[in-house]
Amino acid sequence: MGIKLTDGLTVNSQAQGDDRFSFPTVKAALEDGWTATIAGIPVAIGRLSMGRRYEGLAVWIQEENKQYRFIGGITNDHFIPDVGGSGGGVLTEALTATVSAFGIKAGETFSPGTDTADVLKQMLSPAQAPAISAFACTPPFGLYEVGETLSTFRLSATVVKKTNPIALAEMVNASTGTVLLSDDTIPSGGELTYIDSEGMSSGLRTYRVDSEDSKGLKTSHAGSIEFVYPALVGSVASPSPAAANLLVLQHLVMKKASFTHAYTQEGQYMGAAFPASWGVPIAIRDQNGFDISRNFNLLPIQIAVLFGAHSEQYNVLVYRNQSTATVTFDF
Q1: Domain end: 90, 119, 146, which one?
Q2: CA torsion 92→94→100→104, rounded to 10°?
Q3: Residue ranges of the alpha helices (H) in 17-173?
Q4: DSSP three-state, residue 76
Q5: 120 — phi, psi (to 5°)?
Q6: Sequential DSSP letters for 192-261
Q7: Where in the sequence is the domain holding 70, given as residue range(s)?
């Protein structure tokens, strides 16, 4: 039977079937100099001295209606809530996941003292990595014709906090590995902007936004500016056009892919020129789906076409007769 003190402290020789002690607060259990009043007389109450502690010792804290234990040691910082209290509990020993499930990866270990509610939350509501939205560039990410000069690139993105505060956000030239902008001052998320004044007229450049939260969860988004040699397509006056005649045709700024073109000019030859790296079409079909490849002549030599300061070899195809049609070039 416990001794009931006037201010609420009860020292139990045995409580709820074990040898737990009971204190009104955690401070009362751990600190020196705490007293109770018995019959109007202040009485010094011994704390849980080091000599009275042992790992696993259970203590009832009345204010929280919760049991505490010494877990992983017997100093004050090891005095943590235990599963014995109605207010929740903690793991009393390390727990390692053996399989990946419910957002927890195999091998992940929860240390003694981890709140069981946190484990359950991680299972049912796994932490989400930061999000990156509206990553944009002016001029826009995409394909451009070799020889066109782009002088500056204005980058912008929004970093969105999900589960944990944002620890770091960066804008990177991924093609060179150069960090253009680094910001560790937006824990709640925010806007990133950067102007890159290194112009270009050929090649490929990829920009990336990286975001990492306080728990190490990461997200990245990327966008690229790429210069390509275009396909040249349209009607020509000669069955053997020169490079200058090709440059006035429609420029299709695209990578190697099938496409369709409508030839409408009477008294002209249907022509098309492709970067040599494309090869030649595997089929050329008219609007009825018939393969008319044999009616196109492949010029016997490749033609060097100049785009600004850049030159590229082109394969040139011209229809044998003056004609109009809607033609699909299959690659």
Answers
A1: 90
A2: 60
A3: 26-30, 116-124
A4: helix
A5: -65, -40
A6: EEEEE---BSSSEEEEEEEEEETT--EEEEEEEEEEEPPEEEEEESSSS--HHHHHTSEEE---S--EEE
A7: 3-90
The pLDDT value given to residue 22 = 81
What is the C-alpha separation between 328 and 280, in angstroms, rounded?
13
Is 211 part of any domain? yes
- pLDDT at position 62: 86
Chosen domain end from 227, 260, 287: 227
SS3 301: coil
Residues 268 and 210 in one domain: no
Write out the two tokens for 100.
Answer: 């990946």
Q: How many residues can be counted in the chain?
A: 331
What is the token pair recorded at 5? 């003190």
User: What pLDDT is attached to residue 281?
Assistant: 97
Contact 135, 296 (CB under 8 A): no
Q: How far is CA 152 from CA 135, 156, 196, 198, 267, in A?
A: 16, 13, 6, 6, 44
Q: What is the value of pTM for the model shown?
A: 0.67
Residues 234 and 221 in one domain: no
The CATH number of the domain where 157 resides is what? 2.60.40.10
Using 70 as the pLDDT threshold, list the residues of the chain that sit under it: 1-20, 32-46, 83-89, 102-103
pLDDT at residue 267, as a whole number: 96
pLDDT, residue 34, reads 61
- Residue at 155 is within a domain: yes
Q: Report, in angstroms and rounded to the nearest whole number, the Rg of the chain calculated over CA atoms.
A: 38
Edge-to-edge strand ranges of the sheet holding 142-145: 142-145, 218-228, 204-213, 166-173, 178-183
Q: Which helix (H) or strand (E) holds 281?
A: none
Dump pLDDT digits (tens) for 79-114: 888 754 334 567 777 888 888 776 677 888 888 777
d(CA 79, CA 62): 15
Dig out the tokens for 37 from the structure.
């009043």
